[in-house]
Amino acid sequence: MTEAVTTYYSGQDMQTAQTIRNAESDSEATDIVRAMRQGRAIDTLMVAASAASGAVAGALLQRTLGNPSMYGVSPVGGLGLLTMLAGLAAPLGLPGRAALVAGGATYLAGAQLYSHLFPKEPAP
Questions:
Q1: Which residue has the higher pLDDT, 63 or 2?
Q2: What is the pLDDT of residues 65-111, one digit of tens each?
Q3: Whose CA is closest to 61, among 119, 106, 103, 110?
Q4: What is the pLDDT of residues 22-39, one digit of tens each?
Q5: Average model confidence (pLDDT) for the chain?
Q6: Phi/psi at 33 (nearest 5 deg)?
């Protein structure tokens, strides 16, 4: 089972398919597929790191640019939307796409949150 999951994440689809087909029982084949669906711990950490860094980056850029706002919305957050769209359309595996979408969403949230927590003072 470990070999099938390893070959799956290495992109060796033919070997993975043959391992599942040659499983000794349906239960063993089911266990292989379940392990592939659960993903790896490194994938979960990658998505979490992307989300955390996205929030920090969004807030920092919002601050660096002088906290711009248009009708109460941060235009800096548009970069987060672009990243989310790239994650949805990119020909990547699910963990990579999830990392892009999570990072983009939290980037947008970080920029917007900074804009609301530290509003610009009105010009005299």
A1: 63
A2: 988 888 878 888 889 999 999 999 988 888 889 999 999 999 999 99
A3: 110
A4: 888 888 888 888 887 777
A5: 85
A6: -65, -40
**Cβ neighbours of residue 114 under 8 Å, at least 6 residues apart?**
58, 59, 62, 63, 67, 74
DSSP H helical segments within the chain, as ranges? 2-9, 13-21, 26-38, 41-64, 78-89, 94-117
Q: d(Cα 7, Cα 27) in Å, to the nearest integer? A: 19
Q: Is the pLDDT of residue 2 over 70?
A: no
Partnered with residue 73 across adjacent β-strands are 70
Q: Which residue has the tokens 């610009």?
A: 120
| Half-sphere exposure of residue 94: CA atoms within 13 angstroms, side-chain side | 9
Evaluate whether 77 touches 112 at the Cβ level (below 8 Å): yes
